[in-house]
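Researcher: Good morning. I'm working through a list of sequences from a screen, and I'd like to move beyond sequence-only analysis. For each chain I'm collecting a predicted structure so we can compare shapes side by side. This is the next one on the list. No need for commentary yet; just the structure.
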Amino acid sequence: RRLVSGSNRAVGGALKCRARCLSSDRPKDETTVDDRQMSGDDSSTFQGHIPEEKLEVSFSRSSGPGGQNVNKVNSKVEIRFHLDTATWIPAVGRERLKTQWGHLVNRRGQLVLDCDEQRSQLANTRICLDRLRSLVTEACQPPPPGPDEATQLLHEKRRARASARRVEEKRARSQWRRFKEPSRIH
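Model: Good morning. Structure tokens for this chain:
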């Protein structure tokens, strides 16, 4: 478990905040982790559980306006984890995260999310975890079905007609320009 903080004083409070935030997302009586996910096997679907021990959470000072609060409180939250070793995300989801949200992946292969929208660490941590959960859920969804053969054929015909129309208009403009030129008699 790695926890990084902007100052030594915030470390004790950050651990409490992190534990409360991660545990309050789900009811206490509900089983949180599927046995397959606990063993590290790739399951075919994402169950919504994010293992807190796999995340690297850091807190720092937020940017922007806010006066004394923004200058004193480490309310900005940054969550990162190594995407290739995240066994709690199905392999298909990991690949889609790399392709669709590659701008969130750094050179070391870590997916990095941050949030400094709220004034408190707890609220920003929840927002960041919700974003991560929605990104992973969306990446694990199967892609929408493509158009059927009849629709594809219709699109191909429309593209061919549009292309032919563009070529004909180009030819007509060329002839009109030639017609407007003064004749050259030598």
